TrEMBL record:
Its EC number is 3.4.24.-. Residues 177-326 form the Peptidase M16 C-terminal domain. It comes from Pseudomonas wadenswilerensis. Gene3D superfamilies: Metalloenzyme, LuxS/M16 peptidase-like. This is Coenzyme PQQ synthesis protein F. GO terms for biological process: proteolysis; pyrroloquinoline quinone biosynthetic process. GO terms for molecular function: metalloendopeptidase activity; zinc ion binding. Belongs to the peptidase M16 family. Keywords: Hydrolase, Metal-binding, Metalloprotease, Protease, Zinc. Residues 629-722 form the Coenzyme PQQ synthesis protein F-like C-terminal lobe domain. Residues 16-157 form the Peptidase M16 N-terminal domain. Residues 434-565 form the Coenzyme PQQ synthesis protein F C-terminal lobe domain. It comes from the Bacteria.
Length: 777
């Protein structure tokens, strides 16, 4: 179902792109301002990033409590912003009913921000907390070190994040610079507004004209050109087993961004004959990544990152990388560009409204390379190979066509739904998006080590499936393994067939131990990753040290119990899936839903870090009331802990369904507050909550509307059905949840608020430090 794109310029100079995509259920807006951290005065590092934060603090038209962030969250959407070197982005995705209100708030906050000094002082402390976390993050510091390759005169090598000392908000010169930056760049001639959704182009244009006119008229400002890179020779940086190869490239013609994506697609391809496969065959490579760290005005800094085994020779790896680039430059790229065109069409059809809007605002269409793009690629490769080998020495191969891009549905005899599989009607086949979950309960003590084997074995299929718009996930949680596959139904069936074959008999190379998973460097993320296992009562046990083999996997499958759920498939695809699921290893069966004991439990987990992180999961029995309470809690929790107390930039509260368990999830990461102080602040908010609760009809209607299938993303519908399945509910209906939300009365809401505050249903607290004494609760 192709989308339609329309580009226009409003009378005030605002560039607008409109995309009608009838397959979408949600809509999105992206504002791209051609100004970033390198455009701010050098005297005030971080000014552009600081301004990005200030926009979200409310203005005269919409106060903080009714601003973009609260409004979007109220309607179950998502919103964010990003400051880069030469541009700044603001974007959101919401159900259609909330689109006009969200767009109005976005445009108003950018056109008419408030520069209240008291708010600036508070927000500067948030920026400083981000700076502290950034300065302690090894990955961020590694990237900052790599950027030094641009040379001391290039702004890439300078500090741009901002902190308490660079953002001198009390200085009149700083305030003048802040207002001047906004006036100069946040005007119509410097902005692109992109809208995407199922609405007609006429409807989208009416919205753009209505709200886009709020920006002051203006013309495009010529951003200052950056100085030349220090040099253009490839640079190798080695730190233990991490090897980074940097390619400063300039000058490049227009269209080089698409050429970079084209190159990254094929350089990173893991199929036989390519660079990653060759390095892995030699036992050298653990992980490979390739991307652009920076791009502007014909300059780009490309980065190839390789995590190597101890036996690898870094210089030989670098030589092989150059050899592959020489091969690619000399190859006939016509056929592979046709494959890229198929891949791009698939990406466009499966992209979310938000992804479409952001790509449109950046001018990055889902298209094959045209003549200009091919010329940019030629220049790019010429620059990367300057002074290096120009004739390839190895017999490299271009990737073969991905068969999953051309899968066709086959009409065969109908097959009944197998035992163990539940078919949910919640996602209609008309959405052309199927989802299947398969879950195994395991008893083998070797399950964690065997999961690592199977996860490596599925990697190549995962990548091929992703190119075809199907997402394959294989996860482990305590005694459970879960396989999830989502996307076009016909392709999904083909992927599941291959995945099940691999799970039974993984290829021999998968048994070779791979790289250990990289630990989460951000403590709150590490706790979030560990939360599902902790809810299930996970106990850390040493892994058996024996050698594992196919026979161990066979035994594991023999004693495993599985069940699953599918939704969204046509009758033909469901029948084909039924046949495929007939080959699921293990035996079909049911198992009891997870239950959380009504006790207060503190679990200290890694990583130990310089910042304190804490997650509090409060179980909730009634989903409807729990979701409504979470909606009421979100604003006061954020206002108190993030805005007023400045505990840190990672502060959130939400309703979550995890392993079939409903609950309120509260999270805080702070560079200054202790765990005891965080707990005390959370208690204060929860204790005060019953007195502030509102049970008005409008709020209940807004929440109930989020659970209309037509307003939910397809994946959210499937996940809701799966969580209900894990909780033991048979064929739940979204309409029942909506009715329960609308029927909530004040006593229900007050009762749950008191239960939560007093932990009557128990608490699970995860923290990267010990409990603050026996009376922490």
């Amino acid at each position: 179902m192709p989308s339609a794109l329309h580009i226009l310029t409003l009378a005030n100079g605002l560039q607008v792109t409109l995309r009608h995509a009838p397959q979408l259920k949600r809509c999105a807006a992206a504002v791209r301002v051609q100004a970033g951290s390198h455009d701010a005065p050098r005297a005030w590092p971080g000014l552009a990033h600081f301004l990005e934060h200030l926009f979200f603090l409310g203005n005269q038209r919409f106060a903080l409590e009714d601003g973009l962030m609260r409004y979007v969250q109220h309607y179950g959407g998502q919103v964010n912003a990003s400051t880069r070197e030469r541009n700044t982005e603001f974007f959101f995705e919401v159900p259609p009913a909330a689109f006009a209100g969200s767009l109005e708030r976005l445009c108003q906050m950018l056109a008419h921000p408030q520069f209240d000094l008291e708010r600036q002082v508070r927000e500067r402390e948030v920026i400083h907390a981000e700076f502290i976390a950034w300065s302690r993050n090894p990955q961020a510091q590694r990237q900052f070190a790599l950027l030094q390759a641009a040379g001391s005169e290039h702004p890439l090598s300078a500090f741009q994040a901002g902190n308490r000392y660079s953002l001198q908000v009390q200085s009149p010169a700083f305030q003048a610079a802040l207002r001047d930056f906004h006036q100069r760049f946040y005007q119509a001639g410097q902005i692109t507004l992109s809208l995407s959704g199922p609405q007609s182009l006429d409807e989208l244009q009416a919205l753009a004209c209505r709200f886009g006119q709020v920006f002051n008229s203006g013309r495009k400002v010529q951003q200052a050109l950056p100085p030349s890179f220090n040099n253009q020779a490839p640079l190798l940086v080695r730190n233990e087993r991490q090897v980074d190869v940097l390619y400063p490239c300039a000058p490049l013609p227009a269209g080089f961004e698409q050429a970079v994506d084209f190159l990254a697609t094929w350089l990173s391809d893991t199929r036989p004959g390519g660079l990653p496969a060759t390095l892995r065959e030699r036992g050298w490579l653990e992980h490979f990544e390739f991307s652009s760290l920076y791009g502007f005005a014909g300059q780009t800094l490309l980065h190839a990152g390789l995590k190597l085994h101890v036996t690898a020779d870094a210089e030989q790896v670098r030589a092989l990388l150059a050899d592959w680039l020489a091969f690619f430059r000399a190859a006939d790229l016509g056929q592979i560009n046709q494959e890229y065109a198929r891949l791009q069409r698939c990406r466009e059809l499966t992209a979310s409204a938000l992804e479409l809007a952001r790509r449109d605002s950046a001018g990055q269409r889902f298209e094959a390379l045209d003549a200009q793009g091919l010329a940019a690629l030629e220049r790019l490769l010429e620059t990367m190979l300057a002074g290096q080998v120009k004739t390839p020495t190895l017999a490299w191969q271009l990737p073969t066509a991905n068969p999953l891009l051309n899968v066709k549905a086959e009409t065969t005899q109908a097959t009944a739904v197998p035992e163990g599989l539940t078919v949910s009607p919640l996602l209609p086949p008309s959405r052309q998006h199927g989802v299947i979950y398969l879950r195994w309960r395991l008893t083998s003590a070797l399950r964690e080590r065997l999961w690592q084997v199977l996860d490596r074995a599925l990697q190549a299929l995962r990548e091929q499936a992703a190119q075809a718009g199907v997402h394959l996930q294989f996860s482990a949680c305590d005694k459970y393994w879960q396989l999830r596959c989502a996307g076009n139904g016909t392709v999904l069936v083909a992927v599941i067939e291959q995945a099940l074959a691999i799970l039974r008999f993984p290829p021999s190379q998968s048994w070779t131990p791979g790289a250990a998973n990289q630990p989460d460097v951000m403590p709150i993320r590490a706790l979030l990753r560990q939360l599902p296992e902790q809810l299930l009562g996970y106990q850390d046990e040493p892994l058996p040290a024996c050698t594992i083999s196919q026979s161990d996997l066979d035994t594991l499958w023999e004693y495993s119990i599985w069940n699953g759920l599918s939704t969204g498939l046509s009758a033909t695809d469901q029948s084909a899936l039924n046949r495929a699921v007939g080959k699921v290893p293990g035996r079909a069966g049911r198992y009891l839903p997870a239950r959380i004991e009504a006790v207060r439990r503190w679990q200290t987990l890694p990583p130990v870090a310089s910042e304190q992180a804490l997650l509090l999961f409060c179980p909730v029995e009634d989903q409807a009331t729990g979701r409504f309470l979470a909606q009421q809690l979100q604003g006061p929790f954020y206002q108190r802990l993030r805005v007023e107390l400045n505990l840190g930039y990672a502060v959130f509260s939400a309703f979550r369904q995890i392993e079939g368990c409903n609950g309120l999830l509260l999270g805080v990461q702070s560079p200054s507050a202790s765990h005891a102080e965080i707990v005390r602040h959370i208690h204060t908010v929860l204790d005060a909550l019953p007195a502030t609760l509102s049970c008005n009809t409008a709020d209940k209607q807004a929440l109930a509307a989020q659970f209309d299938e037509q307003a939910m993303t397809n994946n959210d519908v499937a996940e809701w059905a799966w969580q209900a399945h894990l909780a033991g509910h048979q064929q739940p209906l979204l309409s029942d949840l909506q009715a329960a939300i609308l029927a909530i009365d004040p006593p229900q809401l007050q009762h749950l608020a008191r239960q939560t505050s007093q932990a009557e249903l128990g608490w699970l607290c995860l923290a990267n430090g010990p409990a603050p004494g026996e009376n922490w609760h």
